[in-house]
Amino acid sequence: MRPARLTGAGLVRPGGRGTACDPLLLVAHGSRDPRAAEATRALARSVAAARPGTPVLASWLDHTEPGPTAALRGLAVAGHSRVVLVPLLLTAAYHRRVDIPAAVAAAHQAGPPISVRVTDVLGPVGAEADPALLAGLRRRLAEADPGRFDALVLAAAGSRDVGARGSVGRVAEALGVALGTRTRVSYASAAPPAVDVAVARLRAGGARRVAVAAYFLAPGLFHDAVVVAAGEAGAVAVAAPLTDAPELVDLVLRRVDAQAGAGG
C-alpha cells in the first residue's frame, strides 16, 4: 500500500474501490476572514475523529485553497477512485446548484478518473430541518447564556434565492417550536430584515428579552456585524456559529450515510 502523503487539502491515504476508507471532502463557502477557514479545518478534524480510518479533507469555493476541483484531482492522483463530497452549506442555493457541480465537472476533465458522490447540504432537505442541526443551534444558544428570553431571532447570512430563504424560515419555525418561543428570521445581506430591525420589531411587540441564534457555520464579518447590531438593538445575547459542534459533526455523517444508503 502506498504511504499517506500530506497535501494542501489534508492527509491523503490511497484506498481501494468502494472501501470504508473512501475519503470525505468537506466543501465550505470560503471567506477572507482566516477564522472561517480554521473553523472548517476544526470541523474536518472532528469528523475524522468520529470516523476513524476515513480521510477527511477540507476545501473552499472561494478565498482559501485548495478549491474542490484541486482537492478532487489531488485525491485521484493519490490513488483514490471514489470520494464523498459534503457541501458545508446551510441552504441549497447557487453554490450547491452551480458551483459544486462545476467543480466536480472540472475535476473530471483532467487527470485520473474519480467517482464523486455529492451529499445534501446541511440545511433542511424537504420540509424538515434535521434534529441534529436544531440541537446544534440550541447548544450554541445555551452557551451564550441568555438566561430566560421571550423571543428569538435566527440570524442568517442571507440569499436572493426564495427557496433558500424558505428553508431558513423552516429552521426558525422548528427552533421556535422546540424552544417554545416566538422566533423571527433576519439576514446579514441580500434580504430584509436586518437583525437589529428584527430585534426591534419583537421588542416593539412586547418582548422584553430577545436572544439571537446564529445560523452560521463559521465566524466572519457577517457574524461580527450581527453581534454588534443585535447588541445595539437590545438583544440579551448572540450565539456563536456552529463551527465544530458535536451535533454538526453528527449531521455531516448523517448526510454521508444517507447518500451511501441511497446508492448514488
Describe the overall structure.
By secondary structure, the chain is of the alpha/beta class. It contains eight helices and ten strands. The strands form three sheets. Strands 4-3-5-6 form a four-stranded parallel beta sheet, sandwiched between helices. Helix 7 links the parallel strand 9 and strand 10. Helix 1 packs across helix 8 and helix 4 runs antiparallel to helix 8.
List keywords for this structure.
disordered N terminus, 42% helix, four-stranded parallel β-sheet, alpha/beta, 264 residues
Overall outline: elongated
Largest sheet descriptor: 4 strands, parallel
- Strands of the biggest beta sheet: in what spatial order? 4-3-5-6
H-E string: EEEHEHEHEHEHEHEHEH
- Report the β-strand fraction as a percent range: 15-25%
> In which range does the helix fraction lie?
40-55%
Mean pLDDT: 89
End-to-end distance, in Å? 27 Å
Structural class: alpha/beta
Uncertain residue segments: 1-19
Quickly count the helices.
Answer: 8
What is the multimeric organization of the chains shown? single chain
Q: Kindly state the number of beta strands.
A: 10
Radius of gyration, whole Å: 19 Å
List the helices and strands and how they pair.
Layout: E1 5-7, E2 10-12, E3 24-28, H1 34-50, E4 56-60, H2 68-77, E5 82-88, H3 94-108, E6 115-118, H4 131-143, E7 151-156, H5 162-179, E8 182-187, H6 195-204, E9 210-215, H7 221-232, E10 237-238, H8 246-262
Parallel strand pairs: 3-4, 3-5, 5-6, 7-8, 7-9, 9-10
Antiparallel strand pairs: 1-2
Helix pairs in contact: 1-8, 2-3, 4-8
